[in-house]
Automatic annotation (TrEMBL):
Organism this protein belongs to: Stakelama sediminis
Record: residues binding iminosuccinate: H25, S42, Y113, I114, N115, S130, H199, P200, E201, T216
Enzyme class, UniProt record, top EC level: transferase
Name this polypeptide is given: Quinolinate synthase
Function: Catalyzes the condensation of iminoaspartate with dihydroxyacetone phosphate to form quinolinate.
Pathway(s) served: Cofactor biosynthesis; NAD(+) biosynthesis; quinolinate from iminoaspartate: step 1/1
GO terms classed as biological process: 'de novo' NAD+ biosynthetic process from L-aspartate
Compartments, as annotated in UniProt: Cytoplasm
Keyword Signal assigned: no
Length: 311
């Protein structure tokens, strides 16, 4: 296994040799974000995956994101450095249970957060990301009944903001659930006037203290536009890397968990990807995302609706 600058040079060589594009989510380790061709939120990464003319997509994120890339670009080889990079929201929504839930509510459509399995996407009508959910919801007729899953906090936030009464699936993100309201209030007292930007996967008792609620790309834009020089960030702390790169004069503080530290909010799934595993994935074109065609086509219908309604 090459190390240090040799490892970076080998990844570079393989990227060219394979005609590969490296896509990374904002929650990836800084060294992965720094060598990616594109770093973005779930919606932007889906769009990039749909548009790319590369032969190989090396997806540095979690499995549902790499699966989305494969659904939208089936002719490409899509590799994920660590196939165990799952998501607690996906785990909270087993397809058989979701299918039963849908069958119990035949007059509802299923508006589903992209953080779910391909089988749940195939059972859904429209997919949303945190950056597109509000816009998509506003295009659904007022009298249409809606099931929203799997994130009850994002669903609850949307329901409060838009006044839409939706049936919520009871899933949560273990990372955003770990923020402590008491510790956030202590941090706010230590930094009077510093705004709080939070991801809508946070529970309502955290969102209640936020000056801005939005997706990872939305939080980055807020950090860029804000007046002050200090921001408290209530989402996975690796996003702070992009903020510090783009805004070196501002201070970004991760919102803490119950232990007073923001490291407990590192996504354990995202953290499975490493430069070494990325190198192996580009070298061996494994682990590779493979999906069954019938399920892919059904999932693509709900994703295509998202892409059309979000644009
Ligand atoms: P974004 O779409 O805001 O990047 O969110 C993805 C995610 O998994 C947040 O936990
Ligand atoms: Fe899933 Fe939460 Fe990790 Fe996002 S941060 S990938 S929602 S476990």
């Amino acid at each position: 296994m090459p190390t240090g600058t040799d490892l970076l040079a080998e990844i570079e060589r393989l990227r060219k040799e394979r005609n590969a594009v490296i896509l990374a989510h904002y929650y990836q380790k800084p060294e992965i974000q720094d060598l990616a061709d594109f770093v973005g939120d779930s919606l932007d990464l889906s769009k990039k995956a749909a548009e790319t003319d590369a032969d190989v997509i090396a997806f540095c994120g979690v499995r549902f994101m790499a699966e989305t890339a494969k659904i939208l670009s089936p002719e490409k080889v899509v590799v994920l450095p660590d196939m165990d990079a799952g998501c607690s929201l996906e785990d909270s929504c087993p397809p058989e249970q979701f299918a039963r839930f849908r069958a119990e509510h035949p007059d509802h459509i299923a508006l589903t957060y992209i953080n779910c399995s391909i089988q749940v996407k195939a059972l859904s009508d429209i997919i949303v990301t945190s950056s597109s959910a509000e816009k998509i919801l506003s295009q659904i007729p007022e009298d249409q009944k809606i099931i929203f899953g799997p994130d009850k906090h994002l669903g609850g936030y949307l329901a409060r903001k838009t006044g839409r009464d939706m049936l919520l699936w009871p899933g949560v993100c273990i990372v955003h659930e770990a923020f402590s309201e008491t510790e956030l209030l202590k941090l706010k007292a230590e930094h009077p006037g510093a705004p709080v930007a939070a991801h809508p996967e946070c529970p309502a008792y955290i969102l209640d203290h936020a000056d801005y609620v939005g997706s990872t790309s939305g939080i980055l834009a807020y950090a860029n536009d804000m007046q002050g020089d200090t921001l408290i960030v209530a989402t996975e702390p690796h996003i702070i890397h992009q903020m510090e790169k783009a805004m070196p004069d501002k201070t970004f503080i991760g919102s803490p968990g119950a232990d007073g530290n923001c490291n407990c909010n590192i996504c354990p799934y995202m953290a499975l990807n490493t430069l070494e595993k990325l190198y192996v994935a580009l070298r061996d074109l494994e682990p590779r995302i493979e999906i069954e065609e019938d399920t892919r086509l059904k999932a693509k219908t709900s994703l295509d609706r998202m892409l059309a309604m979000a644009s």
